[in-house]
Amino acid sequence: MRYLPKLQQLRIFNEIVKHGSIHAAAKSMHLSQPALTYSMRELEQTLGAALMIRSHDGIVLTEAGQAFSEYSLYIIQELERATIDIISINNKVESTVSFGMSSLLAVTILSSVIKDFKKNNDTTKIIIKEAQLSTLLPCLREGMLEFAVGTISDNMLLNNYNVELLFDAPFSIVARKDHPLVKSTSLEQLKDAKWLFPETSMGYYNSLYNSSIIDFNKNKNKPIFSDSSVCILNMVIKDDYLTILSRARLAQPEFRDILVPLQIKELLPCAQYGLIYLRNHPLSLPAKKLIEIIQHHCKLYNWSPDDI
């Protein structure tokens, strides 16, 4: 049976990678340079591979070292996260979970999700940020959020993230019930319409706006963009603006008698919703539990209602 690396060896290796030299890492850890050198030799013997090339200017990771650096950092982070979780469980102290989501989840399953989560996690502080993924991804990278839910598209660069698909949702062009163009049956009839869209640089709305499905170059009114779903809905309800919303949103009681989907012959593509979190950043125990509940409710919910 092959021996496993020691935890202290992983800590030392991560510090050397972080600081770029054994000397700087030793100073940071208040240890002697020979002690770190000896520890690294032991680690390389255990793994059977050279992890770094040493020089007077510092260290350069080998191919094996680059691969191992990702694993070792993940192990340390996972252990730190596990320690925090266990301390929280044992001492019943308040833990925190923060996540981001699109507005569709806020008006559909969020209430049920939070209710189920709170049954066994009543001491957990929950922080929710509602926005498009173009806003949420930087928050994920900076550690402000643990995960996010939003629309996924082919042009999104998500190499550093884990992506779990949740559901597909059909979308429609939407207007208030007494809109002058409410009887329109083709996109050609909407060429003079006023439009409102969520402001985003990725995901469903961005792909739709840049596609040839609706040619906004032929429209005399340039679309308005907003990062506020409240602003968009308010202007659509009170003015002659059109927007594009999921049919699941239109099925909500507060919108059913106010907004209607236009019966346009050209079909809009469905939006694919996914759950996203950083690949090398361990999720906390509360986040894992919350994700399980979100996945459960996504499977149960009717995202394609016909009675609207």
UniProtKB/TrEMBL annotation:
Boundaries of every HTH lysR-type domain copy: 5-62
Keywords tagged on the record: DNA-binding, Transcription, Transcription regulation
UniProt-listed InterPro entries: HTH-type_LysR_regulators, LysR_HTH_N, LysR_subst-bd, WH-like_DNA-bd_sf, WH_DNA-bd_sf
GO molecular function: DNA binding; DNA-binding transcription factor activity
Xref: Pfam families: HTH_1 (PF00126), LysR_substrate (PF03466)
Gene Ontology cellular-component annotations: cytosol
Claim: Transcription is one of the keywords in the record: yes
Keyword Transcription in annotation: yes
Family listed: Belongs to the LysR transcriptional regulatory family.
Identification of the protein by name: Transcriptional regulator
Species per Swiss-Prot/TrEMBL record: Citrobacter amalonaticus
Organism classification: Bacteria, Pseudomonadati, Pseudomonadota, Gammaproteobacteria, Enterobacterales
